[in-house]
Write a structure and sequence with these properties.
With 335 residues, the protein is mainly alpha-helical. It contains eleven helices and no strands. It folds into two domains: 83 residues, no CATH class; 219 residues, Orthogonal Bundle (MetI-like fold), CATH 1.10.3720. Helix 4 packs antiparallel against helix 5 and helix 7 crosses helix 9. The chain starts with a helix and ends in a 7-residue tail after the last helix.
Length: 335
């Protein structure tokens, strides 16, 4: 397993480099000019000097190489300096946002807690709800609970977040007035009362994200349970006189979790993508809204960095899913 993990990590390096090159190339081909939002009163020669200062006068391969060095060499040294109080990155140019002229990673770190509050909570709630629903639906196949759960899961999986988010706002924020429709990013949690305010404003965006995740995981859990309930080892366990609870929870559930854990691990990067729309609907000042704002402002360094971070998450969690699959299933060996 260790050899497999090291081999996959080594293979991930050229994979990520190729992905970064593709992202850079696509953004270079995209229409738009970072100087488009500069006031018309600015003389053309000043705009040209501004373009040169941003590095737009260099060839594409030079721009790409500068970004690679800054992202893979300078930014890790900045992280080391922040942790250990050293000065390895002092005086070195970092990846700067064209819109704010600030380091991109500093802005990402500032926005990340808001996204993690919503995305992390939504994923945890979805998993805790989906697993019992999937198990009970499979055990009571074709029952009223199973039919209702299947119907709700299909709706949750089919309805996009931009529709369900607006629907939640209309019902629970406008008509009932139970929850706020806009997420207050400036709110700080200092005591129990402020914590409850934070939970209250998180309910709607968490419900929107958790609905889609719950539907997906519950369907996988149900299908995996149904596949294992008819296996020979289940009949053998029952024939030995084991209780139904022991058979279902200790034998069937354990084997059914193997593919479901893989789905859960692979779904984490997807939820960050889904949060982009949800953050726009509820005005959550997180990573998703930052990406949309950067696209609208044609802030290529910000868009490129955020898109590459999403790609890194996909590669990392693919590796985690493969490792977990090998740990949970003794029949899988990566020798």
């Amino acid at each position: 397993m260790l050899t497999f993990t090291i081999r996959r990590l080594v293979l991930a390096v050229p994979t990520l480099l190729f992905i970064s090159l593709v992202i850079f190339g696509l953004l270079q081909l995209a229409p738009g000019d970072p100087m488009a939002q500069v006031p018309l009163t600015v003389p053309p020669e000043v705009k040209e000097k501004m373009r040169q200062a941003l590095g737009l006068g260099d060839a594409w391969y030079i721009q790409y190489w500068k970004w690679i060095v800054q992202f893979f060499w300078v930014e890790p040294k900045v992280l080391v300096d922040w942790i250990f109080g050293t000065s390895f990155s002092e005086g070195q140019l970092r990846v700067l946002s064209w819109q704010t002229r600030s380091p991109v990673m500093d802005i990402v770190i500032q926005r990340l807690p808001q996204t993690l509050w919503v995305v992390g909570t939504a994923y945890l709630v979805a998993v805790l709800i989906a697993l019992p629903i999937g198990v009970y639906s499979a055990y009571r196949q074709y029952s009223i609970f199973d039919n209702v759960g299947t119907f709700v899961s299909m709706i949750g999986f089919s309805v996009p977040p931009f529709f369900s988010g607006v629907l939640m706002i209309v019902i629970f924020a406008v008509n009932l007035g139970w929850f706020p429709s806009i997420y207050d990013t400036t709110h700080k949690v200092n005591d129990w009362q402020s914590f409850m305010v934070q939970i209250n404003q998180m309910i709607l965006p968490v419900m929107v994200l958790a609905l889609q995740i719950t539907a997906q995981i519950a369907r996988f859990m149900r299908a995996s349970m149904l596949d294992n309930l008819n296996q020979d080892y289940v009949r053998t366990a029952r024939a030995k006189g084991l209780g139904e609870k022991t058979v279902v929870l200790s034998h069937v559930l354990r084997n059914s979790m193997i593919p479901v854990v893989t789905v859960i691990a692979l779904g984490i990067p997807q939820i960050f993508g889904g949060a982009i729309i949800t953050e726009q609907v509820f005005k959550v000042n997180g990573i998703g809204q930052l990406l949309i704002t950067a696209i609208q402002a044609n802030d290529l360094p910000m868009v490129q960095t955020l898109t590459f971070i999403f790609a890194v998450l996909i590669v990392v969690f693919n590796l985690i899913a493969d490792v977990l699959y090998g740990i949970l299933d003794p029949r899988i060996r990566y020798d």
